[in-house]
Amino acid sequence: MTDNLNTHCSESLVVYVAHQCGIDTDLGAKGRHGVLKSLPSRREFLSDQSHRIRFIYTPKHCSWLNQIEIWFGTLRKKLTRYGSFSSLENLQDRILRFIEYYNQTMAKPYRWTCDGRLLCK
Prior knowledge:
mainly alpha; 41% helix
């Protein structure tokens, strides 16, 4: 599940997914024809239920539905935003330690407060 950010429908992502799914048909050319022609055509390809890898896009203005985005926001705020890391290995170690700490001290179920009513008409 992902939001509607244009990078989640990029040409390179379509090519990568096609390769990983063993799809070897001509994908076209960006801005011209085929699957790669436009954002809508790329989004449709990435959402295709017959593919082994399939993207599900949240409705516009609903990124809060994507729980991993909420968690990555927490990781950024608590660890990486002002962190200083001497190496990639150091960053990986700090992230793994943060996950362990988070799970022991801060993890709790998300409390949904939305009741489903429209906010405006």
